[in-house]
TrEMBL record:
UniProt organism field: Streptomyces javensis
Chain ranges of the Pullulanase N2 domain: 41-143
Gene symbol of the encoding locus: pulA
Pfam families in alphabetical order: CBM_48, Pullul_strch_C, Pullulanase_N2
Record-given protein name: Pullulanase-type alpha-1,6-glucosidase
Record keyword Signal present: yes
Lineage: Bacteria, Bacillati, Actinomycetota, Actinomycetes, Kitasatosporales
Transmembrane segments: none
Amino acid sequence: MKPPRATLFRTAAALATLALGAAAVPAVSQTARATAATAATAEAQWIDRATVVWKVEHTAATAEELRSAAGGTLRLAPSALTDAQKAAYPHLADRPAYRLDPRDRDKAATALRGPLTAVQRAADDRDHVLHRTGVQIPGVLDDLYAGRARRARLGPVFHGGRPTLSVWAPTAQDVSLDLDGRTVAMRRDPGSGVWSVTGSPGWRDKPYRYRVRVWAPSVGKTVTNEVTDPYSTALTADSARSLVTDLADPRLAPAGWASLKKPKAVPLRDARIQELQIRDFSIADRTSAHPGQYLAFTDRGSDGMRHLTRLARSGTSYVHLLPAFDFGTVPERRSDQARPGCDLAALPADSDQQQKCVAGTADRDGYNWGYDPLHYTVPEGSYASDPDGPARTREFRRMVQGLAHAGLRTVMDVVYNHTVAAGQDSESVLDRIVPGYYQRLLDDGGVATSTCCPGTAPEHAMMGKLVVDSIVTWARQYKVDGFRFDLMGHHPKANILAVRKALDALTPAKDGVDGKSIILYGEGWNFGEAADDARFVQATQRNMAGTGIATFSDRARDAVRGGGPFDEDPRVQGFASGLFTDPNGSPANGGRDEQRARLLHAQDLIKVGLSGNLADYTFTDTGGRRVKGSEVDYNGSPAGYAAAPGDALAYADAHDNETLYDALAYKLPTTTSAADRARAQVVALATATLSQGPALSQAGSDLLRSKSLDRNSFDSGDWFNAIHWDCASGNGFGRGLPPAADNESKWPYAKPLLTDALARPGCSEITGASAAYRDLLRIRTTEKVFGQTTAEGVQRALSFPLSGTGETPGVITMRLGPLVVVFNATPSRQSQTVPTLAGAPYALHPVQARGADATVRTSGYERATGTFTVPGRTVAVFRASGAVGR
């Protein structure tokens, strides 16, 4: 059991509360405060205009009521929730319910615009209060306003050159516009709770904020907040003010934008994705004219762009960008960004001084992964040549153009599940406009922080609308081709399906994009306050099966690597890292019998992964039983959960946790040569690359990318994170002990590794691994049998002919239509005889036979017996004579 993300508080107790998942979400800076601790207690929940749910029980001696400074007293009577209400609020289904007196219901809108408490008092004495608590109001706000508010166009909207600015603030006592230093009154629509004002053409590109007078329960008083627009389309530097900007303004369009032709859309089931952080991509690339910027993707001759182009020609179809929306933890002006003051390169490979120096400036430098949203629909300013104004819009678009010219479509990593701050924090946007609505609240009214940060509530109508509207804007105005949802399991399934529906409605004629070609996938982890569908049907792995929206599959990932990111001993081995076949001596791996059993089970998990994680895919497991993918155990859960190819996304590494190279560095025996480490890397990558369904790899993994063993580099600076495209610069290994905050307990294992010459690859290993990986990519994208469209097609085409009690530990033999693929993770040459293929005319696939890997070319096939022989740590693909790819 592994937590999906490192929590803000980094405590063992907090980690123990989380469920299965992919790993460490970046703990954000000090601005992401634990607002739940300061929020006023609010244990009553007003779920619609007529109903309040509260834990207190009514008796003959008590009376219950809502007391409002604005609306007076609203009387309550004991009641019961209807079946529909229980379905809408499953976590409240067993609570006492109260109905508002019909005579008081017209007071609701007024009552919500000021202090509000729920009171239980003695029935015969109004002043004898038995219980008092605050009131959670999202449900009643949705009931009163969402019907009309959902249809509102929020933010700046232009008609005939004149902008209308609109913001949803139903509980505000007053909202005005601070436009370029002057105050402009706004009008409230009582039916929607939207405040708006229409201005002159002269307002274009002027800075503005809303001035919102509202009751703030977190501080227990009425406040006047000057706050930016949640629907901002542009910002000044450091997100100080929104700008009245029309994204359709031709001045914001780079040359060729309107006529941009994207590479042909690749269906999600065939997508091969490179996950990439914008700054990592170019900050250390001496050949880039725009290091660390959007414009680095326009430097066609740079090492980084040349490598991406090679990958695209081999079959990579999408680049997945880590968060590129406006986030809250990096100074956007380069002049304000701190830099480590040490000579980092002069320090020893195993020194703790690099991480100490980097940590000293981490809160003020230019680096962060960006999982700390401030404004969801504006490009991040620190990646622009000038963060103050329109450059970030133009340059984001030029980045999309640059990727398209390289043959790649663009995916954005989006983080709608939390905000950088809540309450009255200066970096809280949503919660300072409608306090207590956009953030998900716990039973006591505190803000949920299971995602590491103040959580949002997409189950509430207007947060759900913000998600959909934001995604549609990125698709229409920035021509983004796909979206990866961070912690998607914290969204309702209905919200993600609403995104899908909105995108499907976009057409080239009407919107300039084909919305149906846009791919969606995300982290379907099941944990936190929403776990097990406690509040709604979640967008989790199991629930998203059959929707065409993929979820990351951790099943084969763990089997290939071995262990998990929070193992006390990081040397726990798996299929590609030598479990049983090349033991590293760690007691954490158990005895020989245990290792063998674990390895064979890992092979079954990988087979399920190769099927696309299909729940109903049937095969013979290593115990000799005929099983479905759903009957193979993964830590107490079904390994197979997908209904069709494309439901599960395969990967061996991503930005979370150690890079694949670093994980293997810990796990492979210390005597493993650099060449064999590179070969093990390719074997691990192949298990995802050659699977049915989509696959993702972290950028640079084909180049053996290392972060010097850092398992959570969200704030570790350029020194640990930069990609080194030139092999002469190394792969990033041995740049000092990784930052103490997340890695110190592993330093005793890390220190001897970082100075070990065997663990430091040279150019031959780096370039050789990349070339071998590209050959496998080319095979995957040219052999149509890898792209089955249905579960039935996978069942017909895919088999594991040697699976069963006699299966070779460390070797998987896969038959796929006219292909036979042998995954040999052992250190020695292995022969696999498939009697049913005796006499069949197989040969090494032409791509590998002509490819860069001399070792795989020594693979052999004996036709008379149907025997395939493959060198150690090698994946060989054989094709029947006469069979051709697409």
